[in-house]
Amino acid sequence: MSQSFYVKAIWDPEAEVWTSQSNIQGLVIETATLAEFESLAKHFAPELLAENLGLSGEVPVRFEAEGGFNVLAA
């Protein structure tokens, strides 16, 4: 397979949710927890890859999470 797929969870500190960035057409996710995000990505990605691209079988998907936080140094 020549195309590689990715799903990225990006933390939005103002909304306090994880939002998605992906090259899997139709995969749009917004969740309060990273665990829920990963679960939904694993649930919907196979269906979307099959429906949109006719793929079947095992397809590797790279998963990343990006976020940050502020700390008050003592």
TrEMBL record:
DUF1902 domain sequence ranges: 5-66
Annotated Gene3D superfamilies: TTHA1013-like (3.30.2390.10)
Pfam families per record: DUF1902
Domain of life: Bacteria
Official protein name in the record: DUF1902 domain-containing protein
Organism: Brevundimonas staleyi
Higher taxonomy: Bacteria, Pseudomonadati, Pseudomonadota, Alphaproteobacteria, Caulobacterales
